[in-house]
Amino acid sequence: MAQRDGKIVLKCLGRSLKSKTKKKIYSHLKKHISSSSVIYTDQWNFYDDLPDHFQHHDSVNHSEDEWGRDEVYTNTIENVWKHFKKVQDGTYFHFGYSHFDSYLNEHAFRWNRLTELALKVIYDDFMSHIEGKRLKYHELITRVPDYEKLAA
Question: What would the DSSP string read from start to end of 71-135?
Answer without folding.
Answer: TEE-HHHHHHHHHHHHHHHHH-S---GGGHHHHHHHHHHHHHHHTTS-HHHHHHHHHHHHTT---
